[in-house]
Amino acid sequence: MYKHIIRPLLFKLSPERIHSLVAGAIKTSFRIPGFKFLVSSLFSKSSPILEREVFGLKFKNPIGLAAGFDKNAELYKDFSAFGFGFIEVGTITPKPQPGNPKPRSFRLVKDKALVNRMGFNNKGLNSAKSKLSKRKPSNVVVGGNIGKNTATPNELAINDYILCFKEIYNHVDYFVVNISCPNIANLRDLQDRDSLRNILQTICTYRNEQAQYRPVLLKISPDLSFSQIDETIEIVMSVGVDGIVATNTTTSRSNLVTPPEKVTKIGNGGLSGSPLSNRSTEVIRHIHHKTQGKLPIIASGGVMGPTDAIEKLEAGASLVQVYTGFIYEGPEIVKQICNAIINSKQL
């Protein structure tokens, strides 16, 4: 129903407009008594086979909603009804910021892909903290994806990351340090050895001094070479980071079906969706092999359905996240992946 009726109607509007309308519709409809229960009964799947324990946290299933959908921590309570085992909010920055000029989100329908240059648009740390502080106990893990404000120079970026980390430390279950988004000017320069070590070491030192341990993960770019990934792994493991999210969006435009003139007209931005799947799997497999499976990996990038999810789990991922796949395939994707995992274990 979604792919044949609902999606064609939604895709008549711009991606950002649809996101706003869907978010509003979900928040409104979930106030209707019994509606959330109905959604949960349709899209959730429970089984001991699906349960995971990763970096000290228990997940009811390994399927999560990637950062970017719930930028301001306004939807995580409602989206738990779609069957997700975990939801990552953000990217959160210290100060509110509007992001890049519109239009900044585009569909490549023939490729089942998106291009975005949103630019960490969000309502800021205080707004997110106020929402997260109202969390009630549930079996859905919530992660906080943190970044720096666009106006903050790289030499001061560490201040933005540690501020976000400290302020929401007691309100999320794990953190993802986002230094790999291609839509913030010079942000990916922070992936160089010295900058990366400084940021991660400062965060982990603060974490290790707290009464409650919060796992810290690093989200990396798919555009890194394998030698750069190896350097990143060395830093991650030496400072005590708990895992890697592989991967962020890519600046590559290779092997697209969409006509080159349309792609050129869209311009800069991070590409997500099906074209990213193979590279994401390559990175996951490399990290898993390099660390002998000792470093947990969250697969993010090109998970468009059960086949992609299973492939990434078999490549070494402990958990998987969807974003573009959720947009193209609809809310059924979580249950479909869960069923595929159960069936693969029962063979």
Structural category is alpha/beta
The span between the termini is 29 Å
Task: Estimate percent helicity.
Answer: 25-40%
* CATH evolutionary superfamily: Aldolase class I
Q: What string gives the helices and strands in order?
A: HHHEEEHEEEHEHEHEHEHEHEHEHH
What's the pLDDT, averaged over the residues? 92
- Which strand order does the major sheet show? 3-4-7-8-9-10-12-13
Can you tell me the CATH class? Alpha Beta
Low-confidence stretches: none
Radius of gyration: 19 Å
Beta-strand residue fraction: 15-25%
Task: Write the CATH fold name.
Answer: TIM Barrel
Q: In total, how many beta strands? A: 13
- CATH architectural arrangement: Alpha-Beta Barrel
Q: Given the structure, what is the number of helices?
A: 13
Sheet with the most strands, sense and barrel status: 8 strands, parallel, barrel
Number of domains: 1
Overall geometry: globular
Explain this structure to me?
It is a single chain. With 347 residues, the chain is of the alpha/beta class. It has a single domain (2-346), classed as TIM Barrel, CATH 3.20.20.70. It is 40% helix and 16% strand. The strands form 3 sheets. The protein has an 8-stranded parallel beta barrel with strand order 3-4-7-8-9-10-12-13, surrounded by 5 helices. A 3-stranded antiparallel β-sheet has the order 5-6-11. A two-stranded antiparallel sheet has the order 1-2. The longest helix is centred in the middle third of the chain and has 16 residues, at 193-208. It is globular, with a radius of gyration of 19 Å. The two termini are 29 Å apart.
